[in-house]
Specification:
Elements: H1 3-38, H2 45-77, H3 79-99, H4 103-106, H5 109-137, H6 145-150, H7 154-170, H8 175-182, H9 184-202, H10 208-216, H11 223-230, H12 232-262, H13 268-296, H14 298-320, H15 325-352, H16 360-376, H17 379-389, H18 395-412, H19 425-433
Helix pairs in contact: 1-2, 1-3, 1-5, 1-7, 1-9, 2-3, 2-5, 2-16, 3-5, 3-9, 5-16, 7-13, 12-13, 12-15, 12-16, 12-17, 12-18, 13-14, 13-15, 14-15, 14-18
């Protein structure tokens, strides 16, 4: 495989992941600013906000179903074709959101249509991650699999940055213009990103690993059945390993925005600046950590990050209590960048290395999406509930972060490091039986 092909494959993997998270974070931000006023109209503004946030959370719980549906297709007909389907589905749903009439125009049908498109978006997202990851990992030479597998993980932070910047530009408009049409533009123009993503993916071939499965004729009729029957331990490992990667992320990037502004007196601008700076640092560090995992091993790097997360939980909250913006930026960079980046960088590759190729799409999607639904979508809610229950004390929230780290350490204990080894299906099957 030449450098041009390699570059195209990595871009194809990254662009889908970035669009996925751009759509995802864009919806979350607009839900609080716009949807609570234009779609979820209620006499009590708090109820409208809660309904808007509930529609955001819905996608977390539909994602596992998207993972099951599209991973079935991915393990049956191929990674490339499935990725075209998932990207198209996400693109149509997001573009449609930008064109929806509001509650004032069509009444209750406005929130119904918005929620329907959100569910469609969630289904597409559920199938996108696994395919984007396998596109990179299954094309990678063994000695660079960690680096290749970290590239689609950069999509989380790149998508978050693109969504934040796009919305920030729109908020420069007068408020009436923003509320009327300004908020729609990022949704509508996301179609251009999708077209670019589809064009990039059109020029690549099916992954070598899937071709081997096709040639062997060993394609399962129901990959989900084979996965749950023969690989249920690996699915549980993936779910547990995902917990420390997703819960602290949403605490450091989402929960902290409301906590720092409401409880600690920081301005919204200062808090968002801290998150954005940390996001840039994380984006740079993810491929560095992926490359490092090819030298020292995935499991070692993951454990180091997980232990670091547990040890940093109390210092993080203690330091932001001081009210210093500089300190807020520093600790957010440490939490999201230095500590979280090695965990997320190796996660996908490590998942791919514990599943047989014929059910790999299904296995990694199932573990990843269930873990995200259980620990990711609920993390800000759990943290907020703990604050309310314990008189705004951060101690229970810090303990919650430590708890997520312990769950993941237990889950990852049985994983064998397979860096620099071929993703041979017979070897993996033999290890799984052992």
């Amino acid at each position: 495989m030449n450098k041009k092909q390699t570059r195209r494959i990595l871009i194809a993997s990254l662009v889908g992941s970035s669009i996925e998270w751009f759509d995802y974070f864009l919806y979350g931000t607009v839900a609080a600013l716009v949807f609570n006023q234009l779609f979820f109209v209620n006499e009590d503004p708090t109820v409208g906000l809660l309904l808007a946030y509930a529609s955001f959370a819905l996608a977390f719980f539909i994602r596992p179903f998207g993972g099951i549906i599209f991973s079935h297709i991915g393990d049956r007909i191929g990674r490339k074709k499935t990725l075209v389907l998932t990207l198209s589905l996400m693109g149509v749903a997001t573009f449609g959101m930008g064109l929806l009439p509001t509650y004032q125009a069509i009444g209750v049908w406005a929130p119904i249509l918005l929620i329907t498109l959100r569910l469609v978006q969630g289904l597409g997202i559920g199938g996108e991650w696994g395919g984007a990851l396998l596109l990179a990992v299954e094309y990678a030479p063994p000695e660079k699999r960690g680096l290749f597998g970290s590239i689609p993980q950069m999509g989380v932070t790149i998508g978050m940055l693109m969504g934040t910047i796009a919305l920030w530009l729109m908020t420069l408009l007068p408020n009436d213009s923003f509320m009327t049409w300004g908020w729609r533009l990022p949704f509508i123009f996301s179609a251009l990103l999708v077209i670019f993503g589809l064009w990039i993916r059109k020029g690549i071939d099916e992954t070598p690993e899937f071709k081997k499965v096709q040639e062997s004729g060993d394609i399962p009729k129901l990959p989900i059945v084979d996965t749950l029957k023969y690989h249920w331990r690996e699915v549980l490992i993936a779910i547990g390993a995902k917990v420390v990667e997703t819960a602290p992320f949403y605490i450091f990037s989402t929960f902290v925005v409301s906590y720092a502004t409401t409880n600690l007196g920081f301005s919204r601008t200062s808090t968002l600046t801290a998150v954005m700076v940390a996001t840039v640092v994380t984006t740079i560090l993810i491929p560095v950590m992926g490359n490092l995992s090819d030298k020292v091993g995935r499991k070692k790097l993951y454990i180091a990050g997980t232990i670091g997360m547990a040890l940093f939980a109390f210092p993080y909250f203690w330091m932001i209590q001081h009210g210093s913006v500089a300190l807020l930026i520093i600790v957010t960079v440490i939490g999201l960048g230095i500590i979280w980046s090695p965990i997320t960088a190796v996660l996908g590759t490590m998942f791919a290395e514990i599943f047989d190729a014929k059910v790999r799409y299904t296995g990694i999607s199932l573990g990843y999406q269930i873990g995200a639904a259980v620990a990711g979508g609920t993390a800000p809610l759990v943290a907020t509930a703990l604050l309310a229950r314990f008189d705004n004390s951060y101690i229970p929230v810090a303990l919650y972060i430590i708890f997520t780290a312990l769950i993941s350490l237990v889950a990852i204990w049985a994983v064998k490091d397979r860096n620099n080894q071929q993703l041979d299906r017979n070897v993996i099957a033999k290890e799984n039986r052992a």
